[in-house]
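Entry 12.
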Amino acid sequence: MLCCSASSDASKVKECSLPSTLTSPPIKSVVEPGECQFNESFTAVPLLANIPVSSTSFVVRFGLPDKNKGLGLSTCACILAGVKVHDGDGNDDNMVIRPYTPISTNEDKGTFDLLIKKYPDGKMSTFLSELKPSSTPVVSFKHIPFNVKIQYPFKSAKHIIMIAGGTGITPMIQALHAILGEDPSSRSTEKVTLLYGSRNADDILGEDMLNHWASTHRDIFSVTHVLSNEEKDSNAISSRKDVKLGFINRELIESLPGPNEDVMIFVCGPPPMYKALCGDRDKKELSGLLAEMGYKEDQVYKF
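Predicted 3D structure (tokens):
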């Protein structure tokens, strides 16, 4: 088992192997809601590994309450992580809570993996990046019904358009596991198109895995990386056909099948992305660009 500490030193990052959750093929392992090992009360579990992935991202692997079972999380659902952090005023009782969708599947027994992006001012990501593996439970998790969204199989949609930004890629990874890991003879989805927005090439989370899946499952899955802050003549993208510069916009979406009954859209990203594309995440009503383009409320799922 890998037990590396996350680091911003690029040379140290290269020395560490990627976790199996970023190198394995898609695995379909779906369960009904209500089977998760975590419930509506926080349960503390130990950190088993802290694995650098890039200069700004890392994977943390946690143990589960029952070491003989998988997480039991339904498709695309998230769990809530909670830690007590020092607030600078001598008070250690402030709880920081953040939602995360694991990148591991229910096939992993006794463990689950989270792909984390480290933000300079992020209390939780900073805390996790500095956390060392230990048998002592430090981070608590819970799972609530609100965090269960659409389940696999994804109704009757023949074409699923995934629009993700930053860490919003993680529920898409879960959906891709279910779709691409399905036996092609029984798969109802015919095409999955991912538009994935990042600041620059170094910020793309899970890039190697996504690009590999796009190659091994090219008959059904494609990905376009949309980079907002990358230079046009950057060596990182100069020869890449899967990269667009700028933001995910109307032109990009209009290049895909339009708002007919065979199309479904998944959206997950930062608040400005929700506001521009489909309206606030916590509001069921559809607004923004997708509403203007003619998509219906029941076609767009906000993760």
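Annotation: The chain is about 15% helix and 25% strand. Residues 159-302 form a domain with the Rossmann fold fold (CATH 3.40.50.80).
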